[in-house]
Amino acid sequence: MDDERPSWREKWLPFLPLEGTDTRRGSRMTTWRIEATDTGREPCMTTWRPVKERSAKSSCNPTVTTNSYKMENTKHQAQKLAQWTDAFLGFMESWKHLLNVSRHENIISKTRRKKNLVRCNSSTVLISLLFILLLDVSSAMCPPKCTCDDETLKASCGEAGLEVVPIQLNPDVKTINLEGNRISNVHLTLPFYTNLRWLDVSRNRISTLGVRNFEYQQKLVHLNVSLNEITNLSKDTFRGLKNLRVLDISQNMLENIEGVALSDLPDLAELYMSGNKIISIGDRVFDHLSNLRVLKLEDNQLLDIPTPALRRLPSLKILGLSGNLIESIEEDSLPALRDLRSLTLQGNLISKIHRAAFDGLQSLQLLDLSENNLTSVPTAQLSKLTNLAELDLSANNFVILEPVAFQSLFELRRLRVCRLPKLRRVDVRAFVDNIKLESVVMDDNSALQALPTRLFHGNPLLVDISVRGNGFTSLDSAHFPLDQLHSLSLSDNPLHCNCSLLWLWLLTRKQLDTDAKNLTLAAATNSPDTIPRLDIDGIRCAEPETLRNLLVVDVPESEVRCDASWLAVIIVTIVVMALFALTCGMLLLLGTGRWCKKRDELPEPPHHSHLQNGAVLMLMTTKDNMDSMDNFMLKAKEPLVSEMQFQHWDSIAKENGTAESHVYHMNGNAKKPAHIVYV
């Protein structure tokens, strides 16, 4: 006998099913003949009976127990047998030490290659049993702590304490969940599952994905390897995943993405790489991802926006760059991504945005610039985003919201300006351009102590307002369009509970009564007297001290009512009279007390002598003294100054107890009427 031994792959040739009949039961049974190229060995015949018989008769020794495995001789199984042969050979190479065949040279003698039968020993029977288990479609072995469903072809082994990927699952399985185990690699454990669509190996201990471990998963569309310890991606890591649509490698230890690591994913639509240590991304990394729609790069260490790489993504719709170290957005930082709908830049160090930074993002609908170092609203930059519907500018360093702060954002529907520690004033015209605004959140602005009246009345579609955690001590109903609001959040403000909050007390009481009657707000809004939904459990009084920390809804009505009593009326009347008397006294002291005296008591104004050039000025107290003045004319005499005395003034002077004669002087020869002024 020749000592030449065949190779490992040549030893295990396809298995051929043989039909037979159990004469005792009249039931079908299948006999499997194990063929090999070993000479001088006896055939090993193993017969598998139906599931009710718990043992398998074999011409080999010892007899092998089948547990609950049922084998039927069908054409489908014969096809599956040929399909899995090659995969099984590769598997046996990696697991031969577990099957006691690592020293196969002691079992198989080298001979000429002929098709012969092998004498069956315990190792051969074990191998045949393992292979048949892998081929059994109807009732594969489900590992402990796992849930397997052969109807839906799903297997869930989350938190099952597994250290390797199980290989005894249904070969036709479509979904495998291995989340939260202790698996360290996926080497040579996946070729059996060629029908796999969804694989989750997140929260394990995988440090590398190796190369070509997914080569047989050409139908896989979702792969989640997040929360592992992967440090790099090789060239052929994803070889074979031509139909993969979603790849999640977030929360690993990747530092750089270079070369063609993702070149084998032409249909990839969503890529999640958040929570790594990525410093840079190669310019051509995304060259083959023309169908990519979602790219998440949050919580990495990027110093700049990877502009060259982004230019290769014409179909990108969602871009996440939050939690990096970006300090500015320059004019060309963001390429012209015409289909981009969402851009998140939250939690960076951005203090400067170029005026034209967003010019190429005409389709942008969501922008998050919160938690940066902006000192003012970038009004000019934002005005180019005419389709923007949602904007978040929270946690920046704004001091004021200027007039028309959100200019030209006519499609804006949701606005968040929260956690602005320096915000002190909001201009009444801040939201005038935002005619489609539906929701405004202005929470936790501790330095903001007041809102301008009718701030929100220019937004006819506004239905939700939240101003929680600010510094408001008083609120007026005119601040809010109560007739159109669905919800109004006012909690955690230091309110002074007095009669100025009567409107709020009434709203909270009405809502409390509505809830007590088990009426929904939907039913309540059908009535003409609609009210917004309030967060009544958080609206408390800060002052006066007797009401401190008391819910507004629990404040006694007497504390917020301002009805006038008789005593209050009397007090107000006395105060008004006292003020009137004081005013008169002040006027007397200042010499203007004549309005408080009778006309007869008024002193005669002094009469003055006027020297005019051709005209006479006469001062009269009333028109009563003008009876004798109708024909009075002064005649000019010589150029020298002459005197003319009007006797009627003498009588007035005598009546007033004065003997002063009123003399008027004039020059010139022309006759002119006197100019009379009544005093």
Concise structural overview:
The chain is α/β, with parallel strands linked by helices. 15% of the residues lie in helices and 17% in strands.
Which band does the percent of strand residues land in?
15-25%
Question: Residue ranges: pLDDT <50 for 5 or more in a row?
Answer: 1-83, 93-139, 521-528, 606-614, 628-672
Average per-residue pLDDT, rounded, comes to 75
Mind describing the biggest β-sheet? 17 strands, mixed
- Span between N and C termini? 155 Å
Which class of secondary structure composition applies to the elements? Answer: alpha/beta
The percent range for helix content is 10-25%
Radius of gyration: 49 Å
Q: In one word, what is the shape?
A: elongated
Give the total of beta strands: 37
Count of DSSP H/I helices? 10
